[in-house]
Structure formats: structure tokens, C-alpha cells
């Protein structure tokens, strides 16, 4: 199985040299102590935990899986102990508000830690991972009493949280949900209904789980305008903070899934469970978007985790596996064959994994840092950062998870037949990452959000803001070598704006035109977005080489990978442009009855 090694040099390059995290954090009130030295020290400790504790449980957790009984769910051997160590080391509190026992460090640092932990063992990370969204939701929408009662123990990791949206009949169409909330004399609500696909919905790691649940009040309007949001603890909490009686929420079963076997995906029955309204009545979906947007950035991190994990496994194997001779002559003359890394097609797959992972890391960290600006910046700064996040979050969630699946498949392919065999661990990455394109909004839903709400819905304003950042980079002083990349990036940016307008005009005549173009448009947008970050990284790397500042070989590899990205991966936009402009007729003209077997 792949042995995870945290890419500390690349993490430092992106955070400290490309995005200049310390420089940003010094401008944000409360983050002044987040210096490069402190950030690097924390990341190194996170790497040790990920490599030494979580990675060894990755394959065994998949093989053992979770065990359901009427008493609850038992997680795989070692998961509970790893979680206890995680809590003892203070990791859950890293980026949380100091008012509730957090350490008050930037959210971006939490994303870095989650990337490493998720690359080591995504199924395990999902248990504490969803708590971050629960904390954000209660922080933003909860009453002072709710914050006092729940936040401290969620922040410490003593309790975990979930989000309970989906029901069997409605999937992503939450307007159809049926779970009911009946007002009670004591001000609470009786929650009745069933929720499915609840990640980490039941487990043995903590004494309590705080469910954030969507439900309908009596006489609520139909559709999404009639949904409210509730806090429903697994175990009721007394006024003094102690645990009371078990609430009427039970795990009916756990799903038998394609992957992430180490995480319990639960079916939860709410049988008049005691719940508490959070936020205004019938505005639950608006409040839940706080949770969902946090989760979407976290899911983008999953895409990156699987890119990195599959690349590390494939790279180690390609250097070790001997097969055939190089087309240009033996490279291992004393051996019976050459290592397969000498073959162009193997290099194509490895460089694809490397370029996509390192470009995605820059996008993810940038997005996380914008979240810190939203939280701590001035009103003007926060508005600009929030607009950027609105545009880039659906791109990051959908594009990066699609790339994660592509890279996982490349990992299997590099191994050849051995990749298909369970003991090597590469097929597990494929199984584990497939869900990432489904939950928190499928690729198609994210694509419609991007083109419909964020681009066309804003009249192009959000896209023009990012286009302005691309122009600023392209107009910066750079070497002749960098200008080759920047000219290509500027041309793609101009094309992006023109295509957006063209699709928008077509959609005004026929709304199906936007839906028909949406996924291709999102992927197209993703490749240009990564090109922006690769151009930034290339400029920094070339300047470091010129200044003889640091490990020249590291920066040379960056420049070579940037060239590969622009020459081999960015051209994928050409076919995407063709298909997105092919129109809706070839999709919609066939009558339903002709879809026959």
C-alpha cells in the first residue's frame, strides 16, 4: 500500500513563497502571531500525526470497515485511539474562536492540516471533519445560549457534528424533504423523519454527536422556502452542560458502500427527537449554506488528497518497477530492464498527477486564505474576498474532485495489473474518491451554480473580478520565458469572457443552453484557474533561481511542471470549448420514448 509522506516542501512553497501567508495574516486582526515559523512548526507536527498515526490505519480501516449493532456503530480498530490522540493534541481547536476554547489560528492552516490528514486517511478525517461545519453554523446563526451549550465541546473535539440534509426520495432536491418539526411547550421541537447518507452519523469516538438537521414546521410553505434548521443532539444536554437522556434519534443502519469503508455513512431515524431551532423559521436552507460552503471547500481538499495520495504511490512504484528498455537505450544497463519511469507514457501520467495536485494545492490554499479575509478583513476586503469565494468554490469543489478521480485512475494504470489488486492499495483510492463528485452537490449541480448563479446571475461581475486578477498578473514584470505562459493565460482569459457572454446570450433564448454547457464550462474554467496559479508559481520559482535563493532543483522542477501544464493540460480547454458550444439540441431533441433498450 502507498506510504504517505507529507509534501512539506511544496506546502511551504505555496503558503510562504507564492501566497505569502504571513504577509496577509499580519494585516488581519487576531492573526498577527501566525508567522511563518509558527505555521511551519504546526504543519510539521500535523505531518507527523498524519504519517505516523493515520496512514497506517488507511488500508486496515478499509478492510475491517464499520460494524453496526443496536447499541451503535463500532469504528475500525485504531480509529478511536487515533481520534483521542487528535483531541489530546488540540487539533480540533486549531482554527476555532478563542471564545469557545479554540486556538484562534487562521482557517487556512486548518485546511493544510486537513489536506495532510485526508491524504493519509480520508475515511478517518471525515469524523472530525464535519464538526468544522457544525461549529461555523452555530457560530453564525446560533443563539448565545446555543453557542454556550454546544460550541466549547464541539471545538475541543469532545463531541462531533454532522449535517443531516438528504432523504431517500429527494436526494439533492431539498425542496421535497418531509422531515417534520412540531413545536413543544418548552420551546423545543419534536423532529420526526428519516435522513440518509449521513457521514459520521453514528460512531464510538465521542459521547455525543450534534446533528444539524433540516426539517419543516407545521404549515410551512412548500419547497425550499419552507425549510427550517435545527440542532438535534444524539444525547440531550442538561442546562448545566452535563449529558442527560438519550435523544430519540437512532441509527437504523449503515450503508454498504463502494469506498470509504472506515467511515460510517448512517441512516438516521428521528422519532420525535428533541431539537432546537437555529436561525429564523423557514430560512433553514440559507443558514445551512454556511455548513455546505464549508463542506464544499473541505471536499475540494478531498480531491487534492487523492491526487497527492495516488501520485505518491505511482511515483514510488514507477521508480522501482522494472519493465522493458527505454526507447533511447538502456538506462539501467546492469539490470534486466529499465524502471518504468523512463517510458514517456508513464511520465505522462505521473506529470499529470503532479501538475494537477500542485496546481490544486495553490487554488485550495488561496481559497482558504480568502475565507480568513472574509472573517477578519475590513468590510471592503471581506466583500471582495467573499465574491472571489463565490466564484471559485464551485470550481474548486467540482473540478478538483474530478481531477482527484482522474489521478486515482492514473495511479492504478501506472501499476498495471498490480494496481487492480487490493494489497497494493491503489484501487482503494479509486473507490474512496468516487463519492467526492457526488456529495456536497454533484459536479452537474456545482456547474449549474457556477454558470447560472455566479457568472450569468451576477451579470459577469464575479468573473470579471477574477479576470482582473489574471490581467494584473499578466501585466506584471516577468522574464521572457514567463511571458510565454502569461500570453497564453491572457488569451485564455479573453476567450473565457467571450464564451461566457456567448452562452449567456444563447441561454436567454433557451435556458437549456446553460444546462447543456454547464459541466464543460466548469471544467474549462477550472483549467484556466489552475493556469493562473501555475503562472504565479513559475514566476516565483524563476526569480528564486535567479536570486540563488533555496534549492534550485526544486524550483527547476516547478518550471518544468508549469511548462507541462501549459503545453499538455491547458489545451484540454479546446475540446471543452467545442462541446460547450455544440448547443442543447443534440441533448434535448430525442423524445423520451426513444431512450429504449
Structure description:
This protein is an alpha+beta fold and 597 residues long. Among the domains are: 8-151, Orthogonal Bundle (Butyryl-Coa Dehydrogenase, subunit A, domain 1); 160-282, Butyryl-CoA Dehydrogenase, subunit A, domain 2 (Beta Barrel); 447-587, no CATH class. It contains 18 helices and eleven strands. It has helices at 8-18, 21-25, 36-54, 58-64, 79-88, 107-141, 144-156, 284-320, 344-376, 379-415, 426-433, 443-456, 461-474, 480-509, 512-546, 552-569, 572-580, 585-588, and strands at residues 67-69, 72-74, 160-164, 180-183, 189-199, 209-215, 228-233, 235-237, 243-246, 249-254, 265-277. The strands form three sheets. Strands 3, 4, 5, 6, 7, 10 and 11 form a seven-stranded mixed sheet that branches. A two-stranded antiparallel ribbon has the order 1-2. Keywords: FAD, Flavoprotein, Oxidoreductase. Pfam families: Acyl-CoA_dh_1, Acyl-CoA_dh_C, Acyl-CoA_dh_M, Acyl-CoA_dh_N. Residues 68-158 form the Acyl-CoA dehydrogenase/oxidase N-terminal domain. It catalyses: 3-(methylsulfanyl)propanoyl-CoA + oxidized [electron-transfer flavoprotein] + H(+) = 3-(methylsulfanyl)acryloyl-CoA + reduced [electron-transfer flavoprotein].
